[in-house]
């Protein structure tokens, strides 16, 4: 259940470099990546006069991040509580942070904290594991946990009215965890599958070795994941001993964020947790790493491109100089910086910098991408030269000031997500030892260019750099097999209702009739552009998300496959008014966060809305597509595609398409290095003129703005955009129903198999039956912990770590998939269980208990989808892309509320075909 949660400390990487950055996020989250902070600087901030922080007005601190705007208390038993109001939606997130992680595990058992995190979902006194799964499903929200070296976090998001249930769950788990040996034996199988999954990631293997080198001889030497041999030696008694040592109210911080009354909420917390006794806590192990001598590593990967990396020891998130280090990392990753300059020079496919701070130490990672078969030594030398020059000469002062402005302005967006706000407060209090996230304003304001340069001179020392080259390696073509169908015998236990505990039954068994959701303001500009506006005044920020509807598989001329990729990449190279660097500076000066292309976005503070929109429109409507950069971008795109075509990940995706689509289907078209190199700049200009049209564009504006203001500003910026010629055909042809087949894509770097079962469907989301299918899928695999697939493949057998099923809808076609990860010898067993469970949905209606659970889950989930402005915008864009009504969620709610078990069975019997599911496997040769 360890998962990666995005944070502002993880800088976004564009394009194919996300391949590594996602893996870096997964691995560094285990290592305790936290939002920036510094305990020493927090004290400085608290000592300043009210209303003044670092010479800047306190208005720079958003209300949602200010100590003055929250209710906080420490209960007599030592539990620290912070309650943060946020009226974005009738939603609440609870996040309980236990101040212990893998750094305090027994020697030789690095995964003890992680194993205990898993067992927290296996039941406690007054709430067994089946009841917990049922309660979680009925809440309709998201609930999970993560383990780091320093902190273990448990978080729930649900409707505000369900807060008493959330708190009761955490109180029971804090004091009466079951921790039976039988439960541990079952959960151990699942956690070992998680280890196999991470060991199949080249980035994880790299970061695991990197951490062992950088933090040798300290508790950070081993990450929080753990090892299979140590789990084999672990007993439930070992977990119980760790639990009793560290899981105490006086070693926890509880953050509650959302639409709640802070005063009555604090009273509820006191009633729920107040009777839990405090405990004496053991002494903590100190962490004081010594910078290691330079070392070189090398790894083979299944990535489409290679990476040269340089890692340096850096401060932890509670260090006095953390804010300086964070600004340094921002400067090093800036697209105006010297490191990124390697990209437009044609010397790297991507270049950037990642900062991964743990609480007491951290590391920085410079990385540059090179094409498969490219010169890794040259890439490494170029990156070293840039960093050495920065070490000696320093960085531009204006980049330091731009980074400070951006970090401070970015805090203003905190209230735009309820769960994100809870995470930000949790990281500030638990990881950074701050009084509030807003204390970072003073810390950032205090940073000077001189301090940044001094730290760069110290940290970017090649004598302590760990260098590594991650080289892409082909793993072979898919191996096809004969089709097959039918399920092997799988003995499932009979379904039975799970009685809820008395304290949850009253609130969670009630199924309320859905109330309609307030709808956005929708208008269409004279040029055909659709504008959707959803005002929300929880922060002084405005967000814009847009898309130009496109289908490159139908729009790219024959022989020009890849022209869309080249076109998209060139948007980053300036406009007809500003070159690349001048445009980025204009964004930094506001500051604003902007991206352009077929999907485009803008985030800006309310007073700068017009400035931000003007720059976005300039980039979207007047891209320069400079001839001087075209040759480099085209070559880089072709080089990246050469590696992509040979990568196991791409071959896996393509094998899934081949399994379910007819030959010569447009979706099977692929760009090649040759087709990309045949693209000319004129081809790009023609493709842009053809594919970018206002009458195919939807813009969603959310945040601190009125519909009238949004329309006026958007129309001023985009109203002059005119379409030329008839609309292109963008709807893919319908496809026949697929038949069963199987394929295996070898992947030498994986020790675990990734498995997808897939088939095409005879309906789309325009068919009302898809609501019944979605409701049935909640029973089958969409309901996660309460679903049949999760129960049968993970809880009962330990075959897998994760399993799920889902529908993918298009305007003209739909697909159904089941996916899981398993050891090779468990692939066939897990597949048999899947086919049994899918067949059972076709053969018989779900039980009344399952139907009630699925309805409660989906109906309660609908309001939760509006607890983030990003989610609101994404939802509207998705509906617009499918030409579905914007009140589709209300229609779904009515359908779910009225559906019967017979309706679900009828839909599954008509549309789902267990015998036609194709099976595609990536990884080692499976046992089918």
UniProtKB/TrEMBL annotation:
<protein>
    <submittedName>
        <fullName>Proteinase</fullName>
    </submittedName>
</protein>
<keyword id="KW-0732">Signal</keyword>
<keyword id="KW-0378">Hydrolase</keyword>
<keyword id="KW-0645">Protease</keyword>
<dbReference type="GO" id="GO:0046872">
    <property type="term" value="F:metal ion binding"/>
</dbReference>
<feature type="domain" description="Peptidase M16 C-terminal">
    <location>
        <begin position="679"/>
        <end position="858"/>
    </location>
</feature>
<dbReference type="InterPro" id="IPR050361">
    <property type="entry name" value="MPP/UQCRC_Complex"/>
</dbReference>
<dbReference type="InterPro" id="IPR007863">
    <property type="entry name" value="Peptidase_M16_C"/>
</dbReference>
<feature type="signal peptide">
    <location>
        <begin position="1"/>
        <end position="31"/>
    </location>
</feature>
<dbReference type="Pfam" id="PF05193">
    <property type="entry name" value="Peptidase_M16_C"/>
</dbReference>
<dbReference type="Pfam" id="PF00675">
    <property type="entry name" value="Peptidase_M16"/>
</dbReference>
<feature type="domain" description="Peptidase M16 C-terminal">
    <location>
        <begin position="236"/>
        <end position="405"/>
    </location>
</feature>
<dbReference type="InterPro" id="IPR011249">
    <property type="entry name" value="Metalloenz_LuxS/M16"/>
</dbReference>
<dbReference type="InterPro" id="IPR011765">
    <property type="entry name" value="Pept_M16_N"/>
</dbReference>
<comment type="similarity">
    <text>Belongs to the peptidase M16 family.</text>
</comment>
<feature type="domain" description="Peptidase M16 N-terminal">
    <location>
        <begin position="81"/>
        <end position="227"/>
    </location>
</feature>
<feature type="region of interest" description="Disordered">
    <location>
        <begin position="474"/>
        <end position="499"/>
    </location>
</feature>
<dbReference type="GO" id="GO:0008237">
    <property type="term" value="F:metallopeptidase activity"/>
</dbReference>
<keyword id="KW-0482">Metalloprotease</keyword>
